[in-house]
Automatic annotation (TrEMBL):
<keyword id="KW-0752">Steroid biosynthesis</keyword>
<dbReference type="GO" id="GO:0030497">
    <property type="term" value="P:fatty acid elongation"/>
</dbReference>
<keyword id="KW-0521">NADP</keyword>
<keyword id="KW-0444">Lipid biosynthesis</keyword>
<protein>
    <submittedName>
        <fullName>Uncharacterized protein</fullName>
    </submittedName>
</protein>
<dbReference type="InterPro" id="IPR036291">
    <property type="entry name" value="NAD(P)-bd_dom_sf"/>
</dbReference>
<keyword id="KW-0443">Lipid metabolism</keyword>
<comment type="similarity">
    <text>Belongs to the short-chain dehydrogenases/reductases (SDR) family. 17-beta-HSD 3 subfamily.</text>
</comment>
<dbReference type="GO" id="GO:0016491">
    <property type="term" value="F:oxidoreductase activity"/>
</dbReference>
<dbReference type="GO" id="GO:0006694">
    <property type="term" value="P:steroid biosynthetic process"/>
</dbReference>
<dbReference type="GO" id="GO:0005783">
    <property type="term" value="C:endoplasmic reticulum"/>
</dbReference>
<keyword id="KW-0560">Oxidoreductase</keyword>
Length: 121
């Protein structure tokens, strides 16, 4: 099951590690940036439909590359940044509950699909 607390801790660790590396290598002209995107339509994510909030891989990559050197931490895509900023306004305990419910629902749908496919074979 999705654990928002562990995910948050991991994200904090990655941000912390990136910040240390950034400070260490900045004097040598090396740019180190944290990019934490939201949903991107790719084969790996199995998301096929694109939208304002879900770009395809090429659009996301182009946008993310345009952020290099502009921000230490970014989502890499403007609509993802809007989502992040809006989500930060919601208290953590409510946000965690919403994300957990979404993850449980997504997992349940994936298991139902897997079961249907197994029956079809």
């Amino acid at each position: 099951m999705h654990n928002p607390q562990k995910l948050h801790q991991f994200q904090k660790y990655v941000s912390w590690l990136t910040a240390i590396l950034r400070k260490e290598y900045e004097p040598q002209g090396i740019t180190i940036q944290t990019i934490a995107p939201m949903m991107v339509a790719t084969k790996m994510s199995k998301v096929k439909r694109t939208s304002f909030f879900t770009p395809d891989g090429a659009k996301f990559a182009k946008s993310a590359l345009n952020t290099v050197g502009n921000s230490a931490d970014t989502t890499g895509y403007i609509s993802h940044q809007i989502q992040l900023e809006l989500m930060s306004l919601i208290p953590a305990f409510i946000r965690d509950k919403i994300l957990t419910n979404m993850s449980v629902g997504t997992r349940a749908a994936a298991l139902r699909k897997k079961e249907r496919e197994a029956k079809a074979q």
